[in-house]
Amino acid sequence: MSEPQQPPAQPYGSPPPQHAAPPQYPAGQPYLAGQPYPSSPQYPSPSQYPSSSPYPDASPAAPATNPGRLAFILAVVSLGLGLVTTVSYPLIFRWSYDPVVIGAFGTVGNGLVFLVALAGLLLGIVAAKKPGSKILPGIAIGITAAQLAGILISWVSNLFYALPF
Q: Residue 85, CB half-sphere, CA atoms under 13 Å: how many?
């Protein structure tokens, strides 16, 4: 017994083969050996297509203003600034034993992080209200809100620590 013949398998994602109808010859006569094949349809060459775009208002070089992306970038920058500020505290402790210099460094560093995070939060809120993707604005809002809460809690706790003295 022999196995039935099957056509070769199609690659994944390719459309199923479409079987074309056999060519029709004049007067219903079948194709005979030695006769030329019927002519194939003529397609226009690429130079015959119109050169203008079907969408005249679309400009591929025009940059898209996306406040969500800018908010995300500001959130990442504020994370980086916060990391640099935190990691540089031991260097400031070794460089200066003056508590005023150490406090000024913390205030300037955390103040800069606070301003960048606040700008990222506001841009994230603006971008979340616009139509479109909400992923980057949502991430930016989460990162910057957590940073702002951490900085404000830190400042308030330092204020309560300093008040009794």
A: 20
Q: What is the DSSP secondary structure assignment for residue 35, as one 8-state letter?
A: S
Tell me the whole-structure pTM to 2 decimals: 0.57
Residue 144 has which token pair? 């910057």
Please state, in angstroms and rounded to a whole number, the distance separating the CA atoms of residues 78 and 100: 24
Could you tell me which of 86, 157, 82, 87 has the C-alpha nearest to residue 115? 82
In this structure, what token pair is assigned to residue 9? 């398998």
111 band by pLDDT with thresholds 50, 70 and 90: very high
pLDDT band at 25; cut points 50, 70, 90: low
Residue 108 confidence (pLDDT)? 92
Provide CB contacts within 8 A for 107, sequence distance 6+. Answer: none
Backbone angles phi, psi at 132, to 5 degrees: 125, -165
Residues in the chain: 165
- Work out the number of other CB atoms within 10 angstroms of the CB of residue 70: 19
Q: Which residues contact 10 (CB under 8 A, 6 or more apart)?
A: 16, 17
Instruction: Determine the Cα–Cα distance for residues 1 and 141; give it in Å rounded to an integer.
Output: 70
